[in-house]
């Protein structure tokens, strides 16, 4: 089947020296297709907005990109076929396990993962912490479905394979490639509901760029990641960690409900520098006294949460998320709490300062 994608004019010598890249598909808009129009959604509107994610299989995406045969040998597989808003912890465990298994094979030079944009930044950060190899792992996606006018998926996939096949990507941790930019999984976040340049690294910027087969890195990730990570993704049971948000008039109802449900960790998406209204702060402090880990993040799109800044973290037993947004802070907290023994606040803060 893969031979169908190779150009018949390619010489055996040039083909033999190409890297082998495993492409793991999970669905998403990049595999989305138009499902029909209605009176409320005429055909012109449906060119980009009305579609079902994850309809197309990876073979369909590759068939539209025969030019990939000039970049790498492709070994493709369909992991799941979902809209990424429906990503689950079980799927995460499956994906981390599979990617690590692929990377242990000597003939595999890198992995590309096609993913939906809704939870891509969370999956990418999980892999950034859970992959145990220096080989390139690149996630890509699309903001427009495959049937849309000016679909962005094919070029994003081509660029992702190009980066994964490039020597400069080795040891850079898990990367996210969209719109000709290369981002670090820790830094990148989705910043638009519709634009093709929806993914940005607001605090530190992209790692580099890729265009027409050329790859250039202009900086490297600074935090510990991939094969240097000491963290493990659970294969089965994940600790229950949820997110609550501070806003005008925020009550303690959610914290009370989470405590009753036996939550092990709470990420508080505070206002500004992770600030919390008095009732919410008191409820979270009570949660800490009852053995629940509490991490302060910010609902703001950029910047960092300073420890002992607007909130006395040492006194209350809170952990600062630093520059991680609430969703990535949840990923890291789940991994930090995945052991049987509760982690002291000092240990949790060390983990957030390291990763």
From TrEMBL:
Classification via Pfam families: Asparaginase (PF00710), Asparaginase_C (PF17763)
InterPro entries listed in its UniProt record: AsnASE_II, Asp/glu_Ase-like_sf, Asparaginase/glutaminase-like, Asparaginase/glutaminase_AS1, Asparaginase/glutaminase_AS2, Asparaginase_C, L-asparaginase_C, L-asparaginase_N
UniProt keyword ATP-binding, yes or no: no
GO biological process, one term: asparagine metabolic process
Lineage top rank: taxon: Bacteria
GO MF annotations, alphabetized: asparaginase activity
Keywords: Hydrolase
Family recorded in the similarity comment: Belongs to the asparaginase 1 family.
Stored PANTHER family: 60 KDA LYSOPHOSPHOLIPASE (PTHR11707:SF28), L-ASPARAGINASE (PTHR11707)
Protein known as: Type II L-asparaginase
